[in-house]
Amino acid sequence: SNPLRPRNLNRVGYAASTSPGYIKKKFGRRRITMNRNKLQLGFAEKKNILADLNDQQKSAVAHKTRPLLIIAGAGTGKTAVITRRIAYIIEQKWARPSEILALTFTEKAAAEMEQRVDELVPYGYTDMWISTFHAFGDRFLRDYAINLGLPANFKVLTATEQAIFLRQNLFAFDLNYYRPIADPLSHIQELLTHFSRLKDELIEPGEYLALVESLKLKAKSKEEKIEYEKTLELAKAYQRYQELMIQSGNLDFGDQIFLTYKLLKENKKVLKECREKFKYILVDEFQDTNFAQNELVKLIAGRTGNITVVGDDDQSIYRFRGAAISNILDFKKFYKNAKELVLNQNYRSSQEILNSSYKLIQHNNPDRLEVQNNINKKLITKKHGPSPELLYCDSLSCEADKVVAKIGELKKEKKYKNNDFAILVRANSQAEPFIQSLNMAGIPSIFSGASGLYSQPEIKMLVAFLKCL
């Protein structure tokens, strides 16, 4: 029960020291010293968790109870705030490590968060739940698989494996419009995307089917009746898809959230256990969460739970994946007693860049937190530099030529080297004109967005097929 007591010491290799009677081992920046009588654990260089934080960050880290909304602009140290808040909660003994749930959007962000927390707390503090939403759902479902009638060793299919599964079972579906005779496989990807969006909105197969059937009497014209038949076909296909997946012991990524929410919503005993287990919940990149993820967090936390969300509505770019910016905009409407903190001290950019970006984002008004919550989100910094320069071009190739010409000009005037420059593009496909222009100008470059052989769509498809054989 003592969180300072290390587990499984036998898994750590120890080497004999030259000092008689002692065994020492460096473990990262922590030092473990053992003798015959006692085990001493501590930091090699222990420092105050609140050190080097500004007043806004300290207030966020030291917040004890009730919901907390942290609006963190770009470069304001939000990851530092989350990780130090976790460490501070443990240090103040408000909760054990296993009673803290931290959720984020990507595996990379979760790994970084876990690493930073590990550097802040003494060795022996284990069992923290720091993961992506899907990894949390997967772990939860494996613990409670029996409650959903799932095998404990269920398999989560990748997008390619889903397509193969649907193709293999296509004629088990009652399809007409979406399985044309000329090309029966033409709508497989669209069907899977539709099913995924339904799960992102927490729409169950039976609920979808009942809703569609209730629209039958409203379909009067020929066009309306055709549209009704198409929608009914989709609803039946969604229901059949879920039946076949569960029967074969398979889940998709959407199920990891969808089924976790379903179990907690329908099983009060499991929900009570979950709420008692997690005393503190923290969510990073909250503006990128979809409806299902937000509802799951709200269900676990309850209306008065110790939930902390960190996000910035101005950085919401994943709506095409189902992200709902309304989650962060409506946070204070759901949690009436929520505290709101704004981090606007920037540590990344110059004030000139911040001023330009702030001027640009005003075009999103009035659908921004700054307007709706009457707060000041303008970022400030002590750094200064040249003002951003805007180049006007009428085509992508013209843009690439101008950028390369500008690089050549700066190299000549400022004596810059090639590795002093970086070109950022919205998508990897837009990099090709710049690469060609750089080659024409004799400027060597490295394209960091190039994916490896095993990341190519054709190779991923081939590997998925081989797994099925």
TrEMBL record:
ATP binds at residues 72-79. Gene3D superfamilies: 1.10.10.160, P-loop containing nucleotide triphosphate hydrolases, PCRA, domain 4. PROSITE patterns: UVRD_HELICASE_ATP_BIND, UVRD_HELICASE_CTER. Keywords: ATP-binding, DNA-binding, Helicase, Hydrolase, Isomerase, Nucleotide-binding. GO terms for molecular function: 3'-5' DNA helicase activity; ATP binding; DNA binding; hydrolase activity. One of its GO terms (biological process) is recombinational repair. It comes from the Bacteria. Residues 351-469 form the UvrD-like helicase C-terminal domain. InterPro entries: DExx_box_DNA_helicase_dom_sf (IPR013986), DNA_helicase_UvrD-like_C (IPR014017), DNA_helicase_UvrD/REP (IPR000212), P-loop_NTPase (IPR027417), UvrD-like_ATP-bd (IPR014016). Its EC number is 5.6.2.4. Residues 51-350 form the UvrD-like helicase ATP-binding domain. It catalyses: Couples ATP hydrolysis with the unwinding of duplex DNA by translocating in the 3'-5' direction; ATP + H2O = ADP + phosphate + H(+). Belongs to the helicase family. UvrD subfamily. This is DNA 3'-5' helicase.
